């Protein structure tokens, strides 16, 4: 049965996810992202930063040649979701405010497709196909495998927050990166979302 959080927790999670949109807006820009005007996180969202299972340590997508350690991502001072620093563009990150991969809920991994330093970890993510295997290793080295069920490219100002971060009793994974054309400031206008379910 799907887990249904209370409204304050859901609101806080939605606010954190909205912050992710704004922060990811500069993920391919030559400069660091501009300061965000995203909503502040409530104590409930900050409490979600404490995982109930060992944090994931490694991501592997064999069909794309992706093999990356995972940074732990939380919230910025302004309440927006962190992204990996540009100088670590070849390393993906796990948003600790979501589920631990393999546990009930939506686990979210974030990575750049390009940075000012060049090609980044999710550069080829647009080539992933339905049925592809994604493996996430935990602290003890045990791998949890997910199967890609689909992808979606969305405008950043129309990001499907509830679909990506919403409460679910299923064990699901989302990979997020920037995508699409660039705006006048040199920021990509879209996000690419990969959806996967536990095998």
Key phrases:
single chain, about 200 residues, mainly beta, Sortase, Chain: A, 8-stranded mixed barrel, two-stranded antiparallel sheet, 10 strands, about 15% helix, disordered N terminus
Number of strands: 10
SS-derived structural category:
mainly beta
Could you say which overall geometry the principal axes of the C-alpha atoms support?
globular
| CATH architecture verdict | Beta Barrel
In DSSP terms (H or I, runs of 4 or more residues), the helix count works out at 3
Major sheet: arrangement of strands? 1-2-3-4-9-10-8-7
Low-pLDDT stretches: 1-23, 28-48
Question: Percent of residues in helical segments?
Answer: 10-25%
Mean pLDDT over the residues: 79
Task: Report how far apart the termini are.
Answer: 18 Å
Q: What name is given to the CATH topology?
A: Sortase, Chain: A
Active site: 112 (proton donor/acceptor), 178 (acyl-thioester intermediate)
Protein name: Peptidase C60 sortase A and B
Region (Disordered): 31-61
Organism: Streptomyces pratensis (strain ATCC 33331 / IAF-45CD)
Describe what you observe in this structure.
This protein is mostly beta strands. It has one domain (7-198): Sortase (Sortase, Chain: A), CATH 2.40.260.10. Helix content is 14%, strand content 35%. A hairpin with a 5-residue loop joins strand 9 (171-182) and strand 10. The protein is globular. The two termini are 18 Å apart. The relative contact order is 0.21.
């Amino acid at each position: 049965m799907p887990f249904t959080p209370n409204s304050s927790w859901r609101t806080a999670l939605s606010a954190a996810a909205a912050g992710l949109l704004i922060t990811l807006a500069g993920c391919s820009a030559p400069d660091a992202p501009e300061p965000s005007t995203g909503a502040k996180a409530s104590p409930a969202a900050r409490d979600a930063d404490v995982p109930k299972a060992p944090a994931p340590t490694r991501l592997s997508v064999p069909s794309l040649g992706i093999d990356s350690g995972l940074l732990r991502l939380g919230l910025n001072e302004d309440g927006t979701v962190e992204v990996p620093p540009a100088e670590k563009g070849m390393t993906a990150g796990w948003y600790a405010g979501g589920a631990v991969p393999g546990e009930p809920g939506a686990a979210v991994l974030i990575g750049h497709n390009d940075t000012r330093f060049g090609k980044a970890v999710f550069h080829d993510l647009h080539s992933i196909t339905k049925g592809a295997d994604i493996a996430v290793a935990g602290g003890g080295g045990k791998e949890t495998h997910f199967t890609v069920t689909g992808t979606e490219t969305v405008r950043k100002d129309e990001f499907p927050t509830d679909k990506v971060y919403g409460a679910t009793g299923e064990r699901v994974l989302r990979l997020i990166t920037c995508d699409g054309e660039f705006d006048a400031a040199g920021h990509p206008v879209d996000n690419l979302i990969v959806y996967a379910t536990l095998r």
